[in-house]
């Protein structure tokens, strides 16, 4: 028996570099300097260079596997020579097989569908600590990893395994050098000490600490302030469930637990066996060379191999043969004994053998039920094994899944040996490794089997992606005089007309009725002439249910059509929670909530607009008032879009002048804001531009000559066309300001828009204080698009700046023609009252989603400034001169 | 008095020897030595060591070292070993 250092460091306190002499520091600095130079030179190597060197090293490792295994056993007095040969070969051949085709230089992965390319960047200098239990195999593994990833390594082997590790490093280094690796790529500390390790862990030129060893070393690595791969001890629970193939299970456990005398930290520690198979399993173990300890023998064993003070295994037992341990303890066992099996009755300090035992002593527990078995496995897992490895033998998929759920282990090995299974690539498809990441449960940064990609910085070259855009409108829009006649082509058994009292009074409802399919039952649901309340919606839904409606005709302005949209939503999907559906979102495609797709009822929604502004007949938006909450609820989803829109000017011929002006300017604002929106596209631009042209030409005529059929018709079309633009490109800051101001002072929406419009054009056309992130547009284009509008309107101007100024002037002139007030002050709002209101107006405007597609990201101070400009009047709207520079 | 810089081409196969030669010419460089690295695609540890020594001597003699045509891979190596700041780079 020898006194191993493998677990002594559990109780050792952090490493202190203070005691190092200047000479020693010079030596350590020299090693790192040499490694840093090698790593720098290595950056020039290509994949072929690297792969050539790796292959040569692997062949050398295989050639020297036996030599290195012998050295390791002779020096450490741990483990089994034959098994260490296998470990060295796995560390060479299996690892090579896994990494040989992996790209680790330059472009390592191309993801064209995501416009992403991943590129490798070496880390530089690795400081690598290797353990006593798997000394040479770990060195071989880490050398291959380092060359494959173009890193240099300073090795600090466990002092009790220094010679064999130094030899392994020498063999790898000389081979690598011979095949072109940079000089100094591997170095090995002479006579390493804990202060050396402490110094190197904090060395400025060390890029990564790669610590495989005990918990003290791992903790020191993570505490150094350097990036670290620290992988440490485990305590592997095994559940041997009654459906398992017992012969396979017993042999696998013996293979694993006796492999290299149990020195692999993934080896089985406590086997929890179902009651029904317990005796049979123990007999099979005994038949195959295990000694089953009696209660008295178990007591003797635990006293000898577990330190009663710390509760951890005794170092002297680590990596020893079962017969040697038995002789030391005083147990009488056969000379062929491979494994000592000790029954235990629980887990924890009162049951000393339930901890990690890196030697061929296996605890077993008899479980009366699956529940008890899983609980005991969880206990073992939490007794020092978190994040490491667990094993289950079972044919019951439910039990395997349950085990996977409750056990916290980076490797959950099913129906195969724990230690060799966890190493990867032998019994399963895990990455081959000699470093088991234990996740946060083990104080580690990864649960992976550490391999090449942990020794690389992966750089992601992300090219700009063109997100999908959309242009969605109702698939049927009927327009021009008497378009309502098209109602005839929509068969219906039961139709509800949602409308206002005034529209019913002036005969509009009768016109509609005349064109509905004959034999249709028609009910008229009259709602108040105001933004709809929840109560009104629910009454409408009640009527829809009562009449079993299959068609809804919304006849009215924005409020009526919005009400009908929400009635349809609640009628078709009664569970729809309006408050929930109104949750805020930034991008429609990425929104958190989804509108219902399952429908209890189905009804066609036909929208007939009786104003020329909101465009509600084709938009996917609806607003209602929730009086209980005291606020507006805005719903937005393309499922709200009416199925059919009828844009028939006969319903707007009698619009009063002020309503004509208000709704007309609302339409203009929609078009202008959609035109410069960050969501604008060629599809929305064409509609926005056409709508602007129509408004400038026909709105003054419709206002001054209400009976001009052509002007009414064109304005009615303009409203719908503008809505096509803004229902796909959204609106902007003008609407956010107007919503806040209009609500606070009771000013009609179109009028509020008009007060802000020239100022917002000037604001958007100047160089932004803060740009709005916009993947859809290239550069800042708002001013140029305004200039395009000016060209379209024939406003003249030689530069973009002049054209913008001309557009602002033309807009102001249009508003004058429509007899809008020049300023907020003109509405009779005192300066003092306005001053008091501005902070609130800004807060409300900031919360308004409209500005999120504005080309310029408005600062709160800028919003306040715009409110004040609107207060002072249209004459103050000027495009900034600094714009000229950008235009050039 | 106008400075007369020393010009030397560096061959990738003999960087160390070329730098030794350059070192011998530093005394007559009158303040500046220009080394043309255009043909050097890769640099190894020995060359780096030679460059470090060359830079040290140039410092002592107050000679500015200008490296011409250094490719970006070699430049990155000089950055990584913290040697880049000791030279002036021109295309």
Supply the number of helical segments of chain A.
Answer: 30
Number of helices of chain B: 3
Shape of chain A: elongated
Q: Going across the biggest sheet of chain A, name each strand in turn.
A: 10-11-12-9-8-13-14
**Structural class given helices, strands, pairing of chain A?**
alpha/beta
Kindly describe this structure.
- The complex is a heterodimer of chains A (888) and B (91).
- Helix content of chain A is 44%, strand content 14%.
- Chain A has 888 residues and is an alpha/beta fold.
- In chain A, strand 8, helix 9 and strand 9 form a beta-alpha-beta unit.
- In chain A, helix 2 packs antiparallel against helix 5.
- The N terminus and C terminus of chain A are likely disordered.
- Chain B is an alpha/beta fold.
- Chain B has one domain: Transcription Regulator spoIIAA (2-Layer Sandwich), CATH 3.30.750.24.
- In chain B, 40% of the residues lie in helices and 19% in strands.
- A 4-stranded parallel beta sheet of chain B has the order 1-2-3-4, covered by helices on one side.
- The longest helix of chain B has 16 residues.
- The mean pLDDT of chain B is 90.
- Chains A and B meet through helix 1 of A and helix 2 and helix 3 of B.
In short:
The complex is a heterodimer of chains A (888) and B (91). Chain A is α/β, with parallel strands linked by helices and 888 residues long. Chain A starts with 21 loop residues before the first helix and ends with a helix.
Write a concise keyword list for the protein shown above.
heterodimer, A: 888 residues, alpha/beta, Aldehyde Dehydrogenase, Chain A, domain 2, Rossmann fold, 4 domains, six-stranded parallel beta sheet, 30 helices, 23 strands, elongated, disordered N terminus, disordered C terminus, B: 91 residues, Transcription Regulator spoIIAA, 3 helices
